[in-house]
């Protein structure tokens, strides 16, 4: 029973004080004088009073307002328990608690029993504690009884159920406990009955083996503890106020001092102190009885509850709980294996470090667990890492707590791909580096080189350079954007730092620092104008709010007005610097071009165009030229009034470049003169500029195809053309054809353009095909890449989307071109790293060059695989690609796997044939290297088998979708295995028989009836002697047959089962395994039992099932194959025991009978197919002409032959027949 003696170890109950007062005396006794009078009744009189009341019919009288018989009453209807009321959530928690208090005032035992059942039912238990159990059973006995009545069929209980109703219930459950304690804090909780019983119950439940009891009671106990902490806090405040009043009254002069008031205040302070001690005893019982055991519970959610609540206790009542005795539990739990528990630790500590008053009291804890908090910034759970960084940001308030090494471990996280982590690290960086201002910085101007932002921007540049991750400037800016956007948008100060001369005594920025500042400035402009994180952060562009859109427009206007003036000056200053110019030329694409007109900034536009012209004239770097081309493309927008001005400048620039190129080309290709290096450099630089502009602009009116084609043709004839000239000439010609195609596709071309395009495209493809065989590797790679792109563009896909008029442009590669492309891939892509000629000296440079070379090879392979996917080249050419899957898995595994997936979506059967072809090619290569007597345990053979296993996994789990493809794969594999005869002559296995061991990796992908069909197809290639072989060289055949018969016990019908189903023409869908062999023979046994007994006595070869032999007697002679024309007679010389001359005529008849019987059985077994599953024999392996329509006739013939066979068996009972009978029975079964 839940009696007082259960709690004697935790609470001391005075036995002398007894009173009938049990109601809350908030209104009756505001001074709390009678608060202690209710104590002592719990232990001695509680249970007896309950018994007396129930005997007197107390259960039927009203317990209080809103409660009848311990049940809640709404609108005069009494039908809900306390659990149901809280679950419904229709009544306010305050009113529910008030109703329960009224019931407790009238009959505390019945009300307390309802509260106990409330906790039991909240745990999901269907049982209920009765009044008799409450009186007569111990606490542990009640819990054991409730455990027995718990529903074990489901692991769900209210706290774990999903849905809005149960989420609301959890909140209501916690609120109910908090309100209950708050409403009872002046009297009821001190009666040593209600709280003692509830704490005892929750402590016992929290130690239960049932998770629902343990979870629910722990949550209730922790919320009860939090409510008691609030009560204790209020008592502490009242005690301080009372003490202050007492001191003030006592310090008065004697004439004005009121002694009665002093005595009253002294008595009140004493009572408050007693209540405080009582509350502390309760909290101590909950902490030691529940928390100390459950904070390390096996369930993570229970541990999280404990840590969350102890954080609340330390924050609410820091005087009692904020010490090392309680903080150690949070520190220990930071090492928890579950992320949600570690997260609760960090959030609990954040509430403590956030307070300026509490943080100084955490110094010892910080020094002890600081390293753990720092390491949690790299936690595998992103949410935990974010909160760890935020906690360290709060720790920064304490001076010199974090060392430089601790801070640096957080700094680099601003480059993290996970944006919340990066933003938190950016806030940490900003507060550490930018938030501390010196006294000499208060008088600095707000903008400009000498402003406070100027020094902060320099600090940002220094940090960016020290991190040595210069290509990640956009990530650093995005990390700092939320906390330092005003600093990063101070472009005026950035421009001043770049253009203005330093003041006397001021240290100027170095060239490296200026380059970093330009990059940061560009990233800040991009972030302000695009309003989304850089690539790799975030899931995509989000919808901007109206306020964000307005800010975006304002920032874009500021950028345009500011840089329209400053950009020409910046370009003029840094004209020769490649990195700075490349970044500066990207700024105009964020301009609002209307401002050039509305702001009367045309002269600054002309200055910008002149600077771009000068940049093009001075630079030959591809990146800079492409930036210039992109800038012209953005400025040449017909929607804006500045279009004509920009278009004229662009045309003048291109006219000059084309004229210069044609002039130089004539001199360069002049016959009889060998061009010098200066001429080659001039041609190359001009060609680079034209190619860069042709990428973004249509230069068709300058007719550059003829000159470029002439240049390429000369290079082929002479063979001494510089490789860079050839590469850029190919690229430029490629752009010419693509722009021509775009014009033809839009319908804006004139008559004859399509014919010209077709001629140019085919001539250029032939040119690239010839360059594939070039000596220079870079030229070959460029030719291959462009040729693959052109073949893909001008394939049959060009006619899609209503462009049938482009049919004449379709160009499909012939077999020779396909072979050249494949050979290029095999020679240039599938090579080892050490064989790559692009490697350079130096460990770091060599590693970088290897990565770059691998990237190039991956691009080449991807270009060719696209041709396979889009049916530009034959799919079977992919066999040479697929066979490299295992060997080059780390380098190209993802590309090859995706190619296999796409080809399977296009044509499953052809893809399967390609896969088996790749295995066959590998097998042939192995035979050529190791010979036909190779070891099947060799690494080469095991590698092929592992590749087959990987191929099998790519077919997935849905066998019906890949049914035909898998069957075709087995068909091709079987034919390959028996294709070549043995080089050792008859009696030896075929040359490729070991391939069946590889093919067995795909047997698991066959459905049951297809396994039988494949097995029958296999037997068409087998001879009778093959079925009897057991040497090691025949193991591939045995293992393959076993793989086809594995799991087929239910659908493999034996002769006996066929005979026993007399008169049946349809096989049952689920054949039962034969069990007749376990029965003893008797006189009344049927022939089935006779054959079963025979099967037990005869030793058959070691196989899972006997083979299904296909008859050749009833097959059309025209369709017979050489390997099919065999009979099942055994020559006398092969018999273990020679036949006597007098028995020769008997053996002839016996052989005839055997052949006839096997023919009938073969025809009988060919119809054994499930009724509801369609076989795939007709269209993949065999003809349906071999089947018999009348199975009953076959059954009759089989029965006749069987009885005749028995007759012969009884007649010829010598040992010779026994030997023959064993082998013949193997054939029959």
TrEMBL record:
Does the keyword field hold Nucleus? yes
Any idea where this protein resides? Answer: Nucleus; Chromosome; Chromosome, Centromere
Q: Which PROSITE patterns match?
A: SCD (PS51425)
Q: What keywords appear on the UniProt entry?
A: Cell cycle, Cell division, Chromosome, Chromosome partition, Coiled coil, Nucleus
Occurrences of domain SCD (ranges): 291-376
Alphabetical GO CC annotations of the entry are: chromatin; chromosome, centromeric region; cohesin complex; nucleus
Q: Name one GO biological process term.
A: sister chromatid cohesion
Keyword Coiled coil in annotation:
yes
Q: Where is it predominantly found?
A: nucleus
Q: Which Pfam families match?
A: HEAT_SCC3-SA (PF24571), SCD (PF21581), STAG (PF08514)
Which residue stretches belong to region Disordered?
1-56, 1062-1086
Molecular function, one GO term: chromatin binding
What positions belong to coiled-coil segments?
232-285
Quaternary structure and partners? Part of the cohesin complex which is composed of a heterodimer between a SMC1 protein (SMC1A or SMC1B) and SMC3, which are attached via their hinge domain, and RAD21 which link them at their heads, and one STAG protein.
What the record says about family reads:
Belongs to the SCC3 family.
Provide the function of this protein: Component of cohesin complex, a complex required for the cohesion of sister chromatids after DNA replication. The cohesin complex apparently forms a large proteinaceous ring within which sister chromatids can be trapped. At anaphase, the complex is cleaved and dissociates from chromatin, allowing sister chromatids to segregate.
This chain's protein is named: Cohesin subunit SA
Organism whose genome encodes this protein: Amphiprion ocellaris (Clown anemonefish)
